Amino acid sequence: MHGGLPAHRLYLLEGAPGSGKTTLGLQFLRESVRRGEKALYITLSETREELAVVAASHGWSIDDFDVFELNAAEEVLSEGRQQSILYPWEMELSETIRLIEAEVERVQPRRVVFDSLSELRLLAQDSLRYRRQVLAMKQFFAGRKTTVLLVDDLTASKEGSDTQLHSLCHGVITLERLTLDFGAARRRLQVQKLRGIDFVAGFHDFNIRKGGLDIYPRLVASDHHAPFIGDPVASGVVEIDRLLGGGPLRGTCTLVTGPAGTGKTTITLQYLHAACERGEPSVIYEFDERIGTLLARAAAFNLDLQKHIDSGCLVVEQVDPAELSPGEFTQRVRDQVESRGARMIVIDSLNGYLAAMPQEQQLILQLHELLSYLNQQGVVTFIVNPQQGLLGTMPTNLNISYIADAVLLLRFFEAEGRIRKAISVLKNRAGPHEDAIREFRIDAEGLRVGEPLVAFRGVLTGTPEYTGDRAPLMEDRFVAE
């Protein structure tokens, strides 16, 4: 909302039970107390004890602000019932409102949370009378320098969202709770209306943790451009850099694709190791492999990543695929770039990213926005994309090659009775690249890239076969005795 809610207005906070309305309302009042202002929580649906339990779960106390509960009004109303056999519900509504207004006059709060409108709607029993009562409440607070948050749990509304109420309020914030087939529930927030403010529209993921709501604003890449020099980034292996005309440029994304076991992750680790050797903060988000296995594999290929982790230059973050939302993942990446100054980021792998968010819509667009943001920040990004199958035609479950600036293709091939590996560059938007197919090997001393293999057949079919002589083929390194 680019700074917060405009003061002295009436706002609607709506959402189904369990979406986080009470927690947000408590945070809203706690901020008022922190600023030295009086605050009032009017609860018509929960008792003071229930509200205290919610606050205690976050390490808070409700003693810092005033709490008015319906029970206090019920005691007064019950006296009227003893004097009359028929007590009209119109009087119940007007008497409840009168008591609420009296409490506001007594406390003189700067912020008020009214929880919830569903009880008020039930007391009114008529949509016209309910609208008039909300309008009267709006007029009552007008001129009192009070910011009011009306909470609606949507349980008493037949159509869910009350559009008539939307027109009366200065702003409308909607909270949603989504239950997935597997994993934790996902929550998201939407600012539907905010008069006079150029807010960020759309859905914003959030979590409820001890201490309140963690909200992850939707990323708009065009708002985060930073100047940088697009110089090439070396891997430490000259032959690999030559494939990309000197290496990937800063502010570009490189897709490393191929079947399992061809060395995709190892290539990205080579670039990470070289970046850390230059003192550039780097991050790898590991969706598929355990961190211990990753480090052991890197050490076996003469890449000592542990020392860079110990120095703080490299962060290896294990992602729990059942607990992550796209917004939270994007915020994690942004924190690394903006707080740590990360210059290289690896996502391993795209399949794991998709598995972490199987029911999310427009996931490819969210990834595109994230990569655009990283490009504008001058970050070098690598995405590992395993293809389905080992041999033959190997499709991918998601075509993201169009959002990558460079594509490295890895393949198995057969020659001299051995299974070997080939590497080639399919595209490089940042500049020229080799169109040759080269063999590469990974051993205890690291990566090697051989000479171009000109006598290939069937590379693009997924089952390449080398039919030339054995002169360019790579063998084991010579070890002097």
Which helices and strands, and how do they pair?
Blueprint: E1 10-15, H1 21-34, E2 39-43, H2 48-56, E3 66-69, H3 70-82, H4 89-107, E4 111-115, H5 117-124, H6 127-141, E5 147-152, H7 163-168, E6 171-178, E7 186-194, E8 203-209, E9 212-216, H8 238-243, E10 253-258, H9 264-277, E11 282-286, H10 291-300, H11 306-311, E12 314-318, H12 326-339, E13 344-348, H13 350-356, H14 363-376, E14 380-386, E15 406-415, E16 418-428, E17 438-443, E18 446-452, E19 456-457, E20 465-466
Parallel strand pairs: 1-5, 1-6, 2-3, 2-4, 4-5, 10-14, 10-15, 11-12, 11-13, 13-14
Antiparallel strand pairs: 6-7, 7-8, 8-9, 15-16, 16-17, 17-18, 19-20
Helix pairs in contact: 3-4, 5-6
Structure description:
This protein is α/β, with parallel strands linked by helices and 481 residues long. The chain has 2 domains: 10-218, P-loop containing nucleotide triphosphate hydrolases (Rossmann fold), CATH 3.40.50; 223-466, Rossmann fold, CATH 3.40.50.300. The protein has helices spanning 21-34, 48-56, 70-82, 89-107, 117-124, 127-141, 163-168, 238-243, 264-277, 291-300, 306-311, 326-339, 350-356, 363-376, and strands at 10-15, 39-43, 66-69, 111-115, 147-152, 171-178, 186-194, 203-209, 212-216, 253-258, 282-286, 314-318, 344-348, 380-386, 406-415, 418-428, 438-443, 446-452, 456-457, 465-466. Helix 2 links the parallel strand 2 (39-43) and strand 3. Helix 3 (70-82) crosses helix 4 and helix 5 (117-124) crosses helix 6. The protein is elongated and about 95 Å long. It starts with 9 loop residues before the first strand and ends in a 15-residue tail after the last strand. The relative contact order is 0.10.
